[in-house]
Structures are given as C-alpha cells and as structure tokens.
Amino acid sequence: MTPATHWIVGPGALGRLIALRLAGRVPVRLVGRRPLPDRQTLVTPEGDARVQAVVMARIDALPADPPAVVHLTTKAHGAEAAHAALAARLPAGVPLVLWQNGFACQPRLTEHHHGPVLCATTTEGAHVQDDDRVTHAGHGDTYIGALDGSHADLATALAQTLTAAGLPAEAVADIRVRLWRKLAVNAAINPLVARFAIRNGQLRDRPFRPMVERLITEVAAILAAEGVTPPGDGGLEGWRQLVWQVVEATASNRASMLQDVMAGRLTEHEAILVPLLDAAARHRLTAPCLARHLHDLRLRAAALAEPPAAC
C-alpha cells in the first residue's frame, strides 16, 4: 500500500490504537466530532508509555485532499451516520475498512459505499484512559476481507501494513464466518460483564461460568442452523473452546460493552444480539438467555435517552 494518508474515523479506544500504531509508518489523520490533543500516549501491553504526534481533524472540517483509505472505527450504532457525514467528501474508489462489532451495518455499508469495502474483526484489547492516553491492554489477532471475498490484493496490502505497525493481521476470504465467530464470542461475554461490572477473567468462576455456558449453547445452536462453520474441534465444543480461549487471553480486560456502561454510553447490543435472535427466529429456535440480555440492555438504552426529570 502506498504511503498516503489513512483516515481513522472514530477516536475511541480502537481508533486511537490503530492510529498510534500506524503513525510513523504511514501518514495518519484521526477524525472525530471534537478536537483531541495532537500528542497521544499509547501504553503498550508490556507497560511502556509511548508518546506519538497524530494529526487530528473534526469530521465537519476535513481537508480537501482525499485519503488512501478510511478506517471506520465508530461503534456499530454510529457507523452509518459517520459514513453519511463522510460520503460527500470522498471521491469514488476510496477503500473503506469497517471495524465494527456484530453483523448489522457491514452488509448495508458494503452496498452503499462507492468503493471497495473490507471488514475487519480483531481481538486486540484497548481502553481509553484520558483524552490524550489509551492503553493497549492485550495483543490479539486481526482478520480482514470483503464479504464477497473480493479485493484480495487490497486486503493483503492492508494486512501487511497493520502487521508491520504491530497489529498482526491476516487477509482472509471468509471474513463473513470470522465476523459471526467474533459475534458469538461477544454475545457470550459482553452482556454478562456489562451486567455484573466484572473483568473478563471473572467469567471463569461461579456464579458466572454456568451463565456463559448457557449462552454458548444458545449461540452454537443458532450458528449451526445458519451453516456457520464452528472453529477448532467443531460443534458445541468448538464454540466452547473459542469463547474460553478469548476469556483466558483477555482475563484482565474490561470488555467494550462494560466500558460503554461505565462511561454512560450506548452499548452495541443491537449489532451483537439482534443478528443472532433474528437468525433464531428464522430457524424457529428459542434463545431465552440472549433475549433476556437484549431486553435488559434495551431498557438501559431507553433510560439513557430519557430527558432528566424536572426539579
């Protein structure tokens, strides 16, 4: 990939992690709704603090020169609005990389964007400490590809760029399956850690472990009906292995949904849980645990949207 500017739209934990890892290797512009300090500190998984200058821009005041690629790192529920704000400023053909959890906005943006669209799924862990500081909490794996398997050369070039920057990435032809697998992990972990305000590793212990197992059972049945290939040993055991491997690898992490709850933000429950429950309905399966979590998170979202009571 030629060294032209990468726009990273959405300066949350993941967006800043990508920007700070890429900065110094390719030109980077971090785009958000408000200005952030242009000197950012990245705390590495090894505990080192690295200060990096990053060019900032507001989404309503973007430069005229087009980017080489746009990384959309907003939350899933904000992705389409962010893309709409960008679309008129992008010439046809600019690649778009979608980093959202779940499997909701990706098909729609793939259809609407006037250029190549790649989807990325990652297990890199990160959380924001302040406006000028983000922690890379744990190393993970990143997979990149188009939903229809096209744009293989672009995906390979981008994966090489990310890998060289310290974010190991692989171009794949089966990103749709990878997105479903990440969704399965998120559905088994995120609602529970958000509800009980615990770190991922605490799911290994009672009373949480049986709750995770029930969610895995529901998710495995739905994905089997959808024809999504299980990882590892296959079947229910394959999904169990995947979820518990992620729990082990991210034991000290606060999952993104918990970070959103702690910050008083909307969570990505619609993008993570609704695709599974829609699939369950198509195949006439019941998923009471998933449904209960969606109900509870929707109640929380409604409460956030309510105006404060008058004094």
UniProtKB/TrEMBL annotation:
Its EC number is 1.1.1.169. InterPro entries: 6-PGluconate_DH-like_C_sf (IPR008927), 6PGD_dom2 (IPR013328), ApbA (IPR003710), Ketopantoate_reductase (IPR050838), KPA_reductase (IPR013752), KPR_N (IPR013332), NAD(P)-bd_dom_sf (IPR036291). Residues 174-291 form the Ketopantoate reductase C-terminal domain. Pathway: Cofactor biosynthesis; (R)-pantothenate biosynthesis; (R)-pantoate from 3-methyl-2-oxobutanoate: step 2/2. Pfam families: ApbA, ApbA_C. GO terms for molecular function: 2-dehydropantoate 2-reductase activity. It catalyses: (R)-pantoate + NADP(+) = 2-dehydropantoate + NADPH + H(+). Residues 8-148 form the Ketopantoate reductase N-terminal domain. It is an enzyme of class 1 (oxidoreductase). It comes from the Bacteria. The keyword Oxidoreductase applies. Keywords: NADP, Oxidoreductase, Pantothenate biosynthesis. Belongs to the ketopantoate reductase family. Catalyzes the NADPH-dependent reduction of ketopantoate into pantoic acid. This is 2-dehydropantoate 2-reductase. It comes from Halomonas rhizosphaerae.
